[in-house]
Amino acid sequence: MLKIPSTWNRGSEPRFADAPGRGDTPTTGLMRPGPVGFNPPLLRTKGVTPISMTIQAANVDAQIESAEIIQGKMSEPTGPYVIAWYADTGKLGQPANLVFSGHLDYYDVGEAVFFHLSELSAGDGVTITGDDDEDYAYTVDWVRTYTQDELDETAVKDIVGATDTEQITLITCSGEFDFDHGIYHDRTVARASRST
After folding, report:
1. What is the pTM of this model?
2. Domain ranges, ordered by start, for the chain
3. Helical H segments across 88-185, by residue range
4. pLDDT digits (tens, 9 = 90+) for 137-154
5. Considering only CA atoms, which of 135, 147, 127, 136 is closest in space to residue 189?
6. What is the longest distance spanned by two Cα atoms in the chain?
7. Calpha distance 106→104 (Å, rounded)
8. What is the DSSP string of 60-105?
9. Topology of 50-194 in CATH?
């Protein structure tokens, strides 16, 4: 750390360093110019963690939790009314495809957080609040249901793959419940793009 002696006084005139006569250029030291203006514009912080989501058209008003993708498999949300965000896919304010999932229904509960996701239409709004207390608005581009047979490697890359613009992908179960295996095989997916 540079320690300036308490006896040093810059005064109103610039102080030049003594040039030893070898052609060294004197410097103005601390008199270098700074940024123009007293109130430079604030830059938007990138990389904001999402904490809640509302979708009026799908009756969603829920908290968001961080989840992992382990060996290519998305971990499930921990409860019926919480939305999982896969942190490896990006953060709010970044040109990325943020991927979220929520349960369609839940044992002993019935309808869960994304029960009405399939009812969304292009143009519907999605609002995500970040940990910076700002709202990030998105507009639904499309909604599609994929059968198990359609969920090949190419389709999965299209659904959860990276994008070069700010987008979100919402995923839930759909189709008939397979009681033998205790799962849904089909998925409903909604894609939305940043609007404000």
Report:
1. 0.76
2. 50-194
3. 153-160
4. 999 999 999 999 999 999
5. 147
6. 91
7. 7
8. EEEEEEEE-EETTEEPPPSSTTEEEEEGGG--BTSSSEEEEE--SE
9. Sortase; Chain: A; (2.40.260)
